[in-house]
Fold this protein.
Amino acid sequence: MKRQKRDRLERAQSRGYQAGLVGKTKECCPYQEADIKAQWLGGWRNAVDDRITFFGGK
């Protein structure tokens, strides 16, 4: 049971990261559940930071 939940959270984080890399806004988060949404947003924030750091924000 815990592994399935962890996989869901990891998947949400990964999808958020991908969304951030392509320039989607945080309002594009498809999740409503608080913990999953937090993971997605965390991935999104990491991607935005990486994009700014490595690509100059473009």
In short: The mean pLDDT is 91. The radius of gyration is 12 Å. The chain has two helices and no strands.
